[in-house]
């Protein structure tokens, strides 16, 4: 039986005050940072470029091809040459490059934590110096720029989005059974879960194995429920450690998730299967004949792991819905995700022109057509996406009331990529209770100054 508790009273006092202070203006036009020369505005001609702009990112292969194809028209039009290099170990290499003075003009940061490390070295220019901040913010999914904010300034803008708050299903089998394509709340989806189970198959399939990163799928589940049950302000307080990891709100969410995933018959194979199944294989039982499960929660990238025959007819075979809201919780539709954040480290006419294009809703048409890319802009032309399934995901994201970046990517690495991952694996295996896991993760949180996030 899945419990359906109402919304818990939001924390009062200092945590609420801190949250309120941080949800105001994202930029501080009166602040100045002498490490970037105290520059507060930039005018064309102030620093002529060299004709070549170096960009450093993490993606290669087909993603690189899509990226470079999306820049081809820009380079032809402006005459600016783009020198793009990539490294799978971006976080380590960009720190080394900055430390040695080999600083790229623009960095494409897949995680805000690494960005903030580089900001701390005084080499990243706040975006309000050279971009029309309000214009950029007005086209983005609300809340996206929050992920690049530090000490009142925003230091990067997104050029690609990953959307995690998606629930996938085998379209033909699901619709034939008459289940709703978009339940209004999680409580309604739980009713669908009970109906599927009554029909003789497991409602959900799930897998958290991702050696050496096993457990990250579980952290996403917790983050999804924190957003829905307690809303973005409490989510922000939790991620930033303004409330402890073992706060009652967090323990409650663990228990809510436990009622969904640990109830007998809800997940194909139960907890043991979740522990041992690679996350990439979790959607496969949905597309067997007959289907052995009906639902899987995962980001938009999950389609890359589907069988070839399913991908060849994706719009006919694959259904997708937004993970619904929580009745009695946050009233709007939140979206959990990630993205690549473009940050400027060398301010001149050419680099500013590239940043204006990269962070606009005009970037990415060719990449969208090739597949595997989502614009973070609500105003991007959705007709440019390669298939209706991707357009559906893009529309869900564009209609969201608030975006929040993956919480574990914002936490200190030792927590977000360490004890949180590990704790989720112990918890789903029933080796530790919700309270025990939350207490242990809280105890592992580095003291202020011990570790940068």
From TrEMBL:
Classification via Pfam families? SBP_bac_1
Q: Would the keyword Ligase turn up in this protein's UniProt record?
A: no
| Secretion signal, residue range per the UniProt entry | 1-19
Superkingdom assignment: Bacteria
User: Which InterPro entries would you find in this protein's record?
Assistant: Bact_solute-bd_prot1 (IPR050490), SBP (IPR006059), TAT_signal (IPR006311)
Tell me if Signal is a UniProt keyword of this record: yes
Output the PROSITE patterns linked to this UniProt entry: PROKAR_LIPOPROTEIN, TAT
By its UniProt entry, which PANTHER family does this protein fall under? ARABINOSE-BINDING PROTEIN-RELATED, OSMOPROTECTIVE COMPOUNDS-BINDING PROTEIN GGTB
Assigned protein family: Belongs to the bacterial solute-binding protein 1 family.
Protein name, entry field = ABC transporter substrate-binding protein
Q: Which organism is it from?
A: Brachybacterium hainanense
